[in-house]
């Protein structure tokens, strides 16, 4: 099994190839080969079309007594796909093609026939010129005359085309170049103009800003300055500007402001803190029915009893007419003093 794939076989030293018997095969023997149809053909028996490239199992044989420059010519036998009629064709090394021989006709052969006709005419002319020099002169004269006619016809066609379609390609190219150059110049001018306008707008804006700043400075210098208040909380108690002598702008003299009202603010009028505290009416001290008045005795007992008979409203903060705040204890003491005096 190891010798199945080797390239060289073993030949013993006493091997003699002359002793090998030769096969005696006929020279015109046929081989079965697989090929494709070399051209389009039509069967003469049934009219079936066989197209180029169709595969066949053909029989191949060498044509006897027919060579082209030492090259053998082969013949192929195929069968029609419809009627199984035999069709034969052979190689044509002279034209590097295949030649139809029997059983079918070749299609689309007009070009090949025209080429064969031209070759035949050329060959006949060469044979005539070979033996007749006057024929050579006549052929040359006829060829030159034919060339002149062809050139004249070509010139007439060119003139006719120029009349019908007068297109100046050079002028078109020149116009296109001028238009392109003009477009570039316009774009450049527009860019320069836009740049100039942007710079002008920026300059005008800068000048306007500087003018507005100068106007603001002049207005601030010409405007009268407000007198500085003593404390920041004076804004809560003063409605109008006052001069240093205590007079208001209208010329009316204001009452003297206490120090505690400057810091806290007044509780009366339309001040800022006037709405935060509700002003109550002053309460009168009326003895209740259950209370009894003691006779005058020691001062300490009278003060203590009077303090005990003070109503509950006196303990709350009471605001005076001038907006001042009094303490509940002072009110209690004043009521007790009045009662003692009356006794």
UniProtKB/TrEMBL annotation:
Localization of this protein: Nucleus
Main localization, broad class: nucleus
GO cellular component: U2-type catalytic step 1 spliceosome
Known partners and oligomeric status: Component of the spliceosome. Present in the activated B complex, the catalytically activated B* complex which catalyzes the branching, the catalytic step 1 C complex catalyzing the exon ligation, and the postcatalytic P complex containing the ligated exons (mRNA) and the excised lariat intron.
Stated role: Part of the spliceosome which catalyzes two sequential transesterification reactions, first the excision of the non-coding intron from pre-mRNA and then the ligation of the coding exons to form the mature mRNA. Plays a role in stabilizing the structure of the spliceosome catalytic core and docking of the branch helix into the active site, producing 5'-exon and lariat intron-3'-intermediates. May protect cells from TP53-dependent apoptosis upon dsDNA break damage through association with PRP19-CD5L complex.
Family: Belongs to the CWC16 family. YJU2 subfamily.
HAMAP family: YJU2 (MF_03226)
Renumbered residue ranges of the record's region Disordered: 177-196, 203-255, 283-302
GO function term, MF aspect, one: metal ion binding
Gene that specifies this protein: LOC120051356
PANTHER family on file: SPLICING FACTOR YJU2
Protein name: Splicing factor YJU2
GO biological processes: generation of catalytic spliceosome for first transesterification step
Pfam families noted in UniProt: Saf4_Yju2 (PF04502)
Skewed-composition ranges (Polar residues): 291-302
Binding site for Zn(2+): 43, 46, 80, 83
InterPro entries recorded: Saf4/Yju2, Yju2
Organism listed in the record: Salvelinus namaycush
UniProt KW keywords: Metal-binding, mRNA processing, mRNA splicing, Nucleus, Spliceosome, Zinc
